[in-house]
Amino acid sequence: MTAVRPDNRLADAPMQALRCRRCDGPVLVRKSSWEQTSIQWSEQAMDDCPNLRTDRYETCPDLRATIQQATLDGAVKVVDE
Prior knowledge:
Elements: H1 9-12, E1 16-19, E2 26-31, E3 37-41, H2 43-48, H3 61-73
Antiparallel strand pairs: 1-2, 2-3
């Protein structure tokens, strides 16, 4: 059995709380770079998001726009700047 290595990236730059500007669903976000975004969906956000009702594996365009604007405004930090 191999040991699971801890993900130390979150120690230096933890995920940040953010709410979708359309449905107000709470998620956790981490921008490793301008091109890479990690999202942890809460159960509430998954239930509230009108865009996920048809496909839970798609990325919500409204949340994507919320993250982009929050990043441009400086509310979400880009780790690799």
